[in-house]
Amino acid sequence: MSAPLATALGAPLAQIWVYLSASPLLGLTVTLLAYQGAFALYRKAKFHPAANPVLLAVAFLVALLAITGTPYQTYFDGAQFVHFLLGPATVALAIPLYAQIKRVKAMFWPILIALVAGCLTAALSAMAVGKLFGASLATLLSLAPKSVTTPIAMGIAERTGGLPSLTAVLVITTGILGAVGARYLFDALNIKDHAVRGFAIGIASHGIGTARAFQVSEQCGAFAALAMGLNGALTALLLPVVLPWVKSWLG
Question: Secondary structure of 88-144 in the HEC alphabet?
Answer without folding.
Answer: HHHHHCHHHHHHCHHHHHHCHHHHHHHHHHHHHHHHHHHHHHHHHCCCCHHHHHHHC
